[in-house]
């Protein structure tokens, strides 16, 4: 058992850090109404069949899978979701020049919607906001493709006729090496590595904690469930993310503990 901490325990650590690198996962967006797919109550945990729909080879091979997935994309809660207090607090930290990078496993674009700078957000699992052609690489804003679902069930690339997919990383697809390299660099350079709402169970992203620790960063973990890195963290906070992250941001911005 790792002892859990209170936000005030890391107040001086955060206020003294010139650069903070943040890694966020699904838990940051659940308060915005976006379900956690992989967590204990996750959609894919409870229905492994749903996960199969996001296997890259199946998607490319089967038009019926693509038709079903396009409908799911249209109904994705990300289109209605608004940033919550945690997204806002991290955007405030960015505006104050305190973030080295905001690495996220989320595909919902809510960090940018809260005002975080586009080039500070590293979307290691891609984004639902953009569609990519698997043939020619053309990128299109997703809403423009979703509009076509009125007439078509598997909208193809308008330039080349290729199969299209949201610009997210499916099972069986590699992470974008440029984004991953930038995340590794940011993990190495931050004085504090703050993770929020991720179980740190999926590599290579979880390995960013090792990169940070190996480079002397202090690790702060905010997550409801235990993670494999709790024992090496300076502090582990289990309270609700949309309450804890704003408190941590306040301390980082100089509020007294
Ligand atoms: Zn194309």
From TrEMBL:
Residue ranges annotated for the Deacetylase sirtuin-type domain, each copy included: 1-256
Organism: Streptomonospora algeriensis
EC number: 2.3.1.286
Entry-linked Pfam families: SIR2
Active site positions, chain numbering: 125
Presence of keyword Zinc: yes
Identification of the protein by name: protein acetyllysine N-acetyltransferase
UniProt cross-references to PROSITE patterns, sorted A to Z: SIRTUIN
